[in-house]
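Quarterly update from the structural biology core.
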Amino acid sequence: MIKSIREQFNASFSQEKYENFLQDLNSAHPGAIDFRIAETPVFIEKKLGQEMIQTCESIIDFIIHPDFNSLTERAIPADEIVQHQNKISHFIAFDFGICENETGSFFPALIEMQGFPTLFGMQAYYPEVLERHFKIPEGFSHYFNGLNKASYLGLLQRVIMGEHKPEEVILLEIKPHQQKTRIDFYCTEDYLGIAPVCITELTKEGRSLYYNRNGVKTRIKRIYNRIIADELNAVKDTLGPIVDLREDLDVEWVPHPNWFYRISKFTLPFLHHPFIPQTFFLNKMESIPEDLRNYVLKPLFSFAGQGVVIDVTKTDIEAIEQPEHWILQRKVKYASCIQTPNKPAKAEVRLMYVWEEGKERPILATNLARLSKGKMIGVRYNKDKDWVGGSVAYFEQ
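Predicted structure, tokenized:
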């Protein structure tokens, strides 16, 4: 998006350099990167970056407000409430689409947020490899708040591990070695020493949880939670007997599962900001907008774009059986802002916050980006396209 930097990067790019980069990136855990890696990072000018950050900070003001929990009580489905919620969401991610106004200037539009981890482990590894193969201009970084790789990993260690030993902490997922994001689990294990564990591998005695670590029955004291409830519900019947995580368990959560619902699409209708598209709870709308072509219909309790209706009609809305579980959000038109050797790409940037126990606010730590040439961000919309996929943004400092 910074013309001179984009031109320099594209001029120095070669397919051979890209292939060497991918080979290097895959060398730590061959075959574990199960999604496309884009040919380029994104370069964010200072003004655009500040607009994203200021938007996030305004949302955090809302999250730390004393009324937040009462306002978001309905966000958690009654049959998904997990006991012993703690006071903070240790991880928060904010997704912004890069858009263009009528004067040709770029601006950010908040798409979604989640009180849930994302690729925090991989984002310490991936940019380091990228920088071995591609030149990043001086004065740009993917880290924030003075962090570098060492201090960033120190922050992750404090938040994820707490006061516990690596063997007492697990990364919990559903069949982690089959997940498309498993490279992040392996990077997390490399850096912190905690193992990715499937929910089917947990056993319970009284209120205590255990897993098998290298042949040794080991007590779990803290869970770095990567399980999404609706994904678990979709496959629960195929997993056999599993521990019910909603029970009264003697374990610490990072973050607690309830935050996935509280800080989510459910929060959007409460927010009013120039860079947050207008959003409504479907059951609170007095009438259906006449210009429905400018809106997108989203289920509150789904993940990764599942169930989203892009070209929504009045019939779609009238067919909704539980309107209290849906939102209507004003559409965002992504700008074709990344010049590539052929068709320009669209960009989405995820700002990744970390919240330490005892701190009043989370801090912005790093980010990831995704490039697309399709109708939406996502693999199924970008098949057989180049200069798309997972990436990272470098922000002008």
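The chain has ten helices and 18 strands.
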